[in-house]
Input
Amino acid sequence: MRVLLTGGAGFIGSHIALLLLQKGYDVVILDSFVNSSSKVTKAISNYLLTKSFNFNLNTITGDIRDKNLLEKIFNDSIIDNKPIQTVIHLAGLKSVSESLTNPLHYWDVNVCGAKNLIATMNEYKCYSIVFSSSATIYGLTDSVPIDENHQLSPINPYGRTKVAIENMFCDLYKSNMNSWKICSLRYFNPVGAHPSGMIGEDPIGIPSNLFPYISQVAVGRRDSLKVFGDDWDTDDGSGVRDYIHIMDLSEGHIKAIDFLNSKESCFEFINLGSGNGYSVFQIINQFELSTGMKIPFSIQKRRDGDVAKCFADIKKAKKLLGWVPKRSLEQICNDSWNWQRRNPHGYK
Ligand SMILES: NC(=O)c1ccc[n+]([C@@H]2O[C@H](COP(=O)([O-])OP(=O)(O)OC[C@H]3O[C@@H](n4cnc5c(N)ncnc54)[C@H](O)[C@@H]3O)[C@@H](O)[C@H]2O)c1
Output
């Protein structure tokens, strides 16, 4: 079965691509490489070659807003006698701060890009899609755990583009309820790396997320970690978030494809998180254990738009997908560190 994986060279996409190939899927990656390295697909192939896997990976460099290119990809797959049966749509922009300074670009890439993709799918009668949504759409809430019925109130343009895309899917589904199979996965904080240490997260510039930042402190690329607030209403005063191992998240996508394949039609939005909250201090402690190093940090004042605790209710994923996350915080930190110490400068 052929899967089109948009954004497949990115952090999340590269791990999903590897797993799909290991499961025997034929994978076409479409990526513009605006936020990823051209070495990613080589790393995926190298890993599979070391395991003597036969695999079928095709990487296409291009933009999801290029309708002619999308049509060519669907067309070529039909000519190959391997029509694209499912799309996993990850391509998009994800920086909250950048979305505040350049909102129209976010609407263009994320929303117009998604519209272009699903219009092409419609033309080629490919009706099955897994979409990368985000917990950011729930907005500022202390009401944890957060389930899928929680109201949506994103506080930035990035989050609003994700809600707009979910709404577009909803309208599309209602227009043709016999055909479309749509699963919008709302990720919490995907972290960690493939246990081989051959693929992992390689942000461009200064990382805005805790895990890549702390890894870069441990490997000596940054001096110290900033902890934003130690006076939150949590057990140790630092903020609590839901961190999910990237391999658990990737397995959730395989389960989502199985789920869509088992349906005549459907539209579901499903949280993918660990279902647990971990504090920043817990993570620093575990990272120190995993690395055997002291992680220097400084306490800063709280950031606007932060909350004390945020973690997922993952009952729906368990029930519908039969998916449960298996990896611990210890494994997350071990795998993050394994990737970072083997690749201090990422893919460079
Ligand atoms: N990482 C997270 O914490 C997180 C959380 C929730 C949701 N998500 C969503 O998951 C998806 C993947 O996230 P990620 O962390 O792997 O990000 P990433 O930036 O590493 O991957 C996204 C990929 O999409 C590509 N891309 C961007 N614009 C494109 C375009 N116009 N055409 C083709 N390719 C394009 C980038 O080059 C990159 O390889 C994103 O849509 C993101 O919003 C991520």
